[in-house]
Amino acid sequence: MVLEGVSGTGKSTLARALAERLGGATSLHTLPTPHTGWSALINERLRALPQFAFYLSGLLHAADLIRLARAVRPVVADRYASSVVACHAAVHEVPVEEVAGLLEPFRPYLETPTRTYYLGCSEAALRGRLAIKPDAKQDDLDLLAVPGRLARLVTNFRSVRAADATAVPLDMDGKSPGHLADWIVADLEAQSA
Ligand SMILES: Nc1ncnc2c1ncn2[C@@H]1O[C@H](COP(=O)(O)OP(=O)(O)OP(=O)(O)O)[C@@H](O)[C@H]1O
Ligand SMILES: [Mg+2]
Q1: Where would I find the Thymidylate kinase-like domain in this sequence (predicted)?
Q2: Class of domain 2-192
């Protein structure tokens, strides 16, 4: 399964709770290593298209890792294809459809998730969470500092979700990670029954 959503919605926290409940599920982040160590430099130096190609490479590599891991146990992916499209479109202020078009030829290479949970919470909750986020990066700081960035991202995730056949919306407001993980496990069991 995939967890998607704006930075600070609680994907990584929920991924940890899910991996625990699913008894040894593989949890991985997209962008995976080695890409994750290069992202700050890539964002700083490369123009939009080469930057997209970098994130695409990370996504294709994540698909390979997922393919291997899901043959043995459930996989929780912390971000996947939707984040590549929604984030790139938000940062470079281009339409989501344009970025989705660039990704389209590579779709057959990507593993299709069982479910993609789109995490959402109120802007007030999100600002509070970003303020206390222990692993805040430049992207997280830009989310609050760059005018319109947060609004664009939220809108882009909504567009991507609308076009995703595996999408399940998940409202995070006022819910604990443990409660949400239980809900997801029940949803997955109901789906496979
Ligand atoms: N359900 C929740 N209720 C309240 N606070 C939460 C919840 N889930 C996570 N948080 C808090 O919100 C902050 C951000 O959470 P987390 O790091 O999991 O977000 P994220 O979606 O993985 O962000 P990023 O995309 O930047 O990695 C953390 O401080 C975390 O403790
Ligand atoms: Mg995270």
Answers
A1: 3-129
A2: alpha beta
Whether a cis peptide bond, with omega within 30° of 0, leads into 34 is yes
- For 95-121, the pLDDT digits (tens) are 999 999 999 999 999 999 999 999 999
Atom 8 of ligand 1: nearest residue by CA position: 10
Please give the single-letter amino acid code of residue 50. Answer: P
CA of 5, closest atom in ligand 1: 21
The pairing of beta strand 2-4 with beta strand 26-29: unpaired
- Please indicate whether residue 175, judged by its CB atom, sits closer than 6 Å to ligand 1: yes
Listed by start position, the domains of the chain span 2-192
SS3 49: helix
Using DSSP's 3-state secondary structure scheme, residue 130 falls into helix
Distance in Å, CA 12 to ligand 2 centroid: 4
Q: Is the pLDDT reported for residue 137 higher than 90?
A: no
Q: Is 176 in the pocket of ligand 1 (CB under 6 A)?
A: yes
Look up residue 32 and give its DSSP letter.
P
Instruction: Please give the full DSSP string across 138-193, using - where no structure is assigned.
Output: HHHHHHHHSTTHHHHHHHHHHHHHHT-TTEEEEE-TT--HHHHHHHHHHHHHHHH-
**Is the pLDDT assigned to residue 141 strictly greater than 90?**
no
132 CA closest ligand 1 atom index? 29
- Does residue 172 line the site of ligand 1, with CB under 6 A? yes
- Give the position, in ligand 1's atom list, of the atom nearest the Cα of 133: 29
pLDDT surpassing 90 at residue 133: no
